[in-house]
Structure formats: C-alpha cells, structure tokens
C-alpha cells in the first residue's frame, strides 16, 4: 500500500512535497487508502463534505493563492476538522511553481494539534487523475496476497495437532512467504528453524531478550521480531524472525497469526508428550507385571489403554535393538507397524533395546507382528537387529524374554540381522565364515583333486549322507550302485566311516559350508596353515548361546530326554542298542525322540536335525563327543 513517503518517490511527476511539519519523518510511513479531489471553488460554494473516507489523502485543486487567507483559510480549517474526525491522513493543495509554504500559521498550528501533515503539489491536475485508481488496485492486490497467505498458512495445519513435523512445516512456509529467517525455540532447545542456519543469526536477539527478561513481543533489532507463542499460559516458546527489510503492518499481522497457530501446535506437543509419558509409564508397568507373572494386574493396567489386548492366554516376545539415540523414534515406528496388535515399550533396563509383546489368540496366525517387525528392522539399517521367541503362556513371559534375548544375540550373526526364534536359527549361519570355510576345505581337500571328481561327489554326497542309498538314488536320478560307489570312494579318500553318524555329520556340515555358504573368494593362507578343528570352530559365544537356548525347554522335562538323546546319538541313532543301554523299551526311546522333536522344532530323522542335536548336547553337556576334525591346508 502507498505511503505519504513513497508516493512522491513512486510518482515523481506529482511534484509532492511536505509543507508542514518541518520534520516529515513521523509521517513518511503513513499508509494512503485512497485519494479524494476537492475543487477549491466547490469547497467555497458548497462547503466541506459531511464525511470523508478513512485513510484518504485530500487534494484541493484550483487556483490556491500564494498565501491562504480569508474565506479560503476558514474553509481549509473546516476541512481539517472534518479530516480529523474521519481519520484522513494528509491535506494537499495545488500551488504555483515556487510556492513552498502557502499555509498560514493558524493552519500550521491546527495541523500540529490534529497530527495531519500539510503537503504541496505543483503538478497539473491531470497528473493526479489515475492516482486514486492506482491506489485501489494496489490495495486490492495486497488484500488478495494477504488472503492467499492466510489461506496457505491455514493449509499448514496438521490433521493431528500432535504431528511431530507440523511446527517445522509452518516454519518453512513462513520463511518462504515473508522471505525471513525463522526460529521457534524454548530456553534450552530449538524446536524448529528455517533455514537451518537461522538459529545462529537469531541467537543474539533471543539471548538479549532472555537477559533483559522482557516480554518477547515486538522488535528486538532493526528488522527482528520476537513473539511469544502463548503469553497467557506462560509458555517459554518464542517465535523469532528477521530479514533485511522492515516489516509492515500486514507482515506483523501475518506473524501474529502464525504465532497463534504455532502456539496451538506447541501446546498440543507438550500435552501429547505429557500424555505419552504417562501412557508409556503405564505400559512399562504392565510389562514388568507380565514378566513377574502378575497377568491379572497387567490386564487391569492395560484395560483402558488397550482394551482386550492382553485377553489371550499366550504371547510371543520380540526384542529390537538399535542405537540409543534412535530408540525413541524406533519405538514410535514399532507402535505404528504393529498397529495395536502388540504392547511396545522401551526397555527401562537397556537404553538400546525395545520390547514387543504380541498376544496370540487361538487359531490366529502368530507371524503378523513378526513380519512387520522384520520389515521395520530392515528399514532401520545396519545397527538394528531383531530376536523373537516362540509362543508362551502369558504367565511364562520371562522365559519368552530370555529366548527372545538369546535370539537377538544370534541375529547379529545373521545376514538380515533377524532371528525370529532360537529354534529357527540356522547353526551354519552362526559359524565364523572364514574359519568355517578354512575348516571345511581342509577336510574336503582330498575330494577336490580333480574338477570332475569334485563335481560328482559334491552333487552326490549331501543327499547320500542324509538318506538311505535307495532313496538318495531316486532323488538324484542315479542308479543305486552309482551312489554306493561314489560314497565308498569319498569315504576312502577322506578316511571316514560313513556308517558312523558323527562322520556323516562332520562331512555333511563341511559340504554345506563349501557348496551353499561359499564366500566370494575362498580363504587362502601360506603353506602349512593349520585349519581349525571342528571343536574349535564350535567354540564361539553365539554358538554356546544357541545351544543353551535350543535345549532349554527339553532340559526342564523330567523324563531325562537329553540322557536318552545322548545315548541314541552315541549308538548312531539306532533304537535297540540305545534302549538296552538305558534299560528302557524301544517304544520309550522312540517317544523321547519324538518329544525332543517338539521341543527343538527339528526333524530328528534328518541329518541336519541330528547334527544340531549332537552339537548342542556336546556344547551344553560335553557328550556325545565330536571328532576333532582338522587337517593342514596344503595349498596357498
């Protein structure tokens, strides 16, 4: 909108100058809402109009004498009185060139009293004909721009006031709309800034306001504004803005509107944080009660927070580990991912761990939450891992947590950093990769002397060691005699007895490591490098943890299942000698093995199932013994 100071600058053809007061500076910024032209002759004949538009600049045209006096002076004084009543902004008279002060002292005194400046123009009347239309056009454009800005400001409001990004969005918009630097802050932290360097530029204004302890409302520098977001509530959040050019009244109004919206968002943020803190404390209390076996009390705590969530009698437990600085964000993402199906809390005992309890209803799939958490851990990046438990009774969630914690430690050795249960964790993936390759290649080196021999035996042996030769021949689409001949050749080269279960297990493991887990570049070492033994290969913390967790449920069974399993493996998985050695019936031995399959989630008729059982028993109990298989690697 034009001002008394800008009008002669924007339109020099108007030849407009201040005649009074001598110091025009106080009136330079006065805005002009329109122009009213009054011919001097009409003013003298019909008198002053009864009303004039507020904010208007009044132009008196006609032959104004060198000195205004007599009837003209009286008319001018009456006009000034009406202008004061209607809040007009200035009086302009047309004068001949060279006339600088046509107003008598009485009119100048009246100008001082009513604070309306007196101006003179020497431009012809036709130069002023388009001024009023131009002012109105300018006002219309300004009004449309401000309306558009207010509409855009309202559009920045979030659908939910607790939206974590709402304050930053409003701040970014304000910075673009007014070409300013914006900072929203409390005494001890920045809530939002745009651009990112705004905090540095506005720090001085914030510090000065803090030191002076004055209300943060109004300019604190040449072109800086500080506005409290909620002065009535005593909130400490402040909106600070700065730019190179001064703020006009429309800018300040927009800033005040933005401050109100930011205040609402800040209030919602604080109230949401308080409610979230209370909710989080209640959830943590419920988890603590569940881990103590106090299921009924935990249900009462969660009754209002999540009705029906803890109604099922069984649940799975998951442990998510991530960096401490990202845990709060990860908790929110876990809550979103599980969508009300699970109880999610930040572990109060460890600052990098999240606990997720997924109650499982009868007949309901128990992998819904597991799948969502797996995707989430993948999205969180390399520093995140996930461990899970099987399905436990709610009263045994402490045991479920132990299993999930063990699984999470095992997950650190998995390619995807996920182990959804100890039973589902693959032993081979826990072996140190390079040492495992070195051991396997040293053991199988005699089979690798020629490419043709290695290709034949690598394809035949895994199946032939896992199944009877007739079944293996059918699976491989070979003649039984061909399978028998190749297995005999391999046993001769390796100096192994494949009738012995432990030799079949060792060679089968080596074949899996070499053929299915091969590294991009096989490990090599200098001549005479000694490969680790199988016992040394298994001597790793994560494998001990895997063995303990795998056998934990079976160890609690009073039937002595592990004793039966040890004897059964010692007698190469034959029932009759096992039963005789233990003084049990074959049916009892068979029932024990079936029970173990349930506890371990393993098929103990398969070579891999028997391998996991044998290695776990050896690591936990020391029996049955395993061969110290190892060989010098003879090639670089």
Outline the structure in words.
With 636 residues, the chain is an alpha+beta fold. It has 24 helices and 18 strands. The strands form 4 sheets. Strands 11, 12, 13, 14, 15 and 16 form a 6-stranded mixed β-sheet that branches. The protein has a 5-stranded mixed β-sheet with strand order 1-5-4-3-2. α3 packs parallel to α4, α14 packs across α18 and α21 crosses α22. The longest helix is centred in the middle third of the chain and has 43 residues. It starts with 6 loop residues before the first helix and ends with a strand. The C terminus is likely disordered.
Helix content: 40-55%
Counting helices, strands and paired strands, the structural category is alpha+beta
What radius of gyration results from the CA coordinates?
44 Å
Low-confidence stretches: 213-217, 631-636
Biggest beta sheet summary: 6 strands, mixed
Quantity of strands, as a count: 18
End-to-end Cα distance: 86 Å
On the 0-100 scale, what is the average pLDDT? 83
Strand content: 5-15%
Task: Determine the number of helices (DSSP H or I, runs of at least 4 residues).
Answer: 24
How would you describe the shape?
elongated
What attributes characterize this protein structure?
636 residues, alpha+beta, six-stranded mixed sheet, five-stranded mixed sheet, 13% strand
């Amino acid at each position: 909108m034009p001002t008394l100071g800008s009008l002669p600058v924007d339109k020099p053809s108007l030849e407009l100058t201040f005649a009074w007061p001598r110091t025009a500076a106080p009136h330079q910024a006065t805005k002009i809402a329109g122009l009213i032209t009054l011919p001097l002759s009409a003013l003298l004949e019909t008198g002053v109009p009864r009303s004039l538009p507020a904010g208007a600049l009044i132009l008196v045209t006609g032959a104004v004498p060198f000195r205004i006096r007599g009837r003209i002076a009286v008319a001018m004084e009456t006009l000034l009185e009406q202008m004061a009543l209607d809040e007009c902004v200035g009086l302009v008279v047309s004068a001949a060139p060279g006339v600088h002060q046509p107003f008598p002292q009485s009119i100048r005194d009246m100008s001082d009293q009513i604070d309306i400046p007196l101006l003179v123009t020497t431009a012809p009347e036709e130069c002023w004909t388009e001024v009023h239309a131009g002012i109105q056009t300018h006002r219309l454009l300004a009004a449309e721009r401000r309306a558009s800005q207010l509409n855009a400001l309202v559009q920045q409001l979030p659908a939910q006031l607790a939206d974590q990004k709402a304050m930053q969005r409003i701040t970014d918009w304000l910075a673009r709309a007014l070409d300013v630097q914006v900072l929203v802050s409390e005494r001890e932290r920045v809530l939002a800034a745009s651009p990112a360097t705004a905090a540095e530029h506005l720090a001085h204004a914030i510090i000065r306001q803090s030191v002076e302890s004055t209300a943060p409302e109004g300019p604190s520098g040449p072109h800086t504004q500080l506005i409290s977001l909620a002065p009535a509530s005593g909130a400490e959040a402040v909106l600070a803005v700065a730019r190179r050019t001064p703020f006009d009244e429309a800018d300040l109004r927009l800033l005040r509107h933005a401050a109100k919206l930011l205040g609402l968002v800040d209030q919602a943020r604080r109230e949401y944080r308080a409610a979230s803190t209370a909710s989080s404390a209640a959830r943590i209390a419920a988890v603590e009660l569940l881990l103590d076996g106090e299921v009924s009390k935990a249900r009462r705590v969660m009754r209002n927070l999540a009705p029906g969530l803890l109604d099922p009698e069984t649940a799975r437990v998951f442990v998510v580990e991530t960096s401490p600085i990202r845990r709060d964000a990860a908790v929110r993402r876990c809550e979103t991912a599980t969508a009300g199906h699970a109880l999610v809390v930040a572990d109060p005992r460890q600052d990098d761990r999240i606990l997720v309890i997924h109650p499982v209803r009868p007949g309901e799939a128990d992998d819904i939450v597991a799948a969502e958490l797996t995707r989430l851990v993948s999205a969180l990046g390399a520093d995140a891992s996930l461990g899970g438990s099987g399905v436990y009774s709610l009263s045994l969630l402490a045991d479920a947590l132990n299993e999930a914690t063990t699984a999470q430690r095992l997950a650190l050795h998995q390619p995807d950093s996920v182990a959804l249960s100890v039973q589902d964790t693959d032993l081979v993936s826990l072996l140190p990769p390079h040492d495992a390759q070195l051991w396997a290649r040293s053991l199988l080196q005699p089979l690798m002397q020629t490419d043709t021999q290695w290709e034949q035996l690598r394809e035949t042996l895994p199946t032939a060691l896992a199944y009877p030769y007739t079944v293996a021949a059918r699976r491989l689409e070979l003649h039984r005699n061909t399978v028998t001949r190749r297995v005999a050749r391999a046993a001769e080269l390796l100096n192994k007895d494949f009738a012995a279960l432990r030799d079949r297990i060792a060679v089968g493991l080596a074949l899996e490591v070499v053929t299915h887990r091969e590294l991009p570049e096989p490990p090599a070492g200098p001549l005479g490098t000694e490969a680790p033994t199988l016992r040394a290969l298994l001597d790793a913390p994560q494998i001990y943890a895997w063995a303990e967790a795998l056998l934990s449920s079976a160890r609690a069974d009073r039937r002595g299942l592990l004793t039966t399993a040890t004897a059964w493996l010692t007698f190469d998985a034959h029932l009759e000698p096992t039963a005789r050695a233990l003084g049990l019936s074959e049916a009892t031995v068979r029932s024990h093995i079936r029970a173990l399959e349930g506890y371990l989630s393993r098929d103990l008729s398969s070579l891999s199932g028997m391998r996991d059982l044998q290695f776990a028993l050896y690591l936990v109990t020391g029996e049955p013994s395993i061969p110290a298989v190892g060989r010098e690697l003879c090639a670089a």
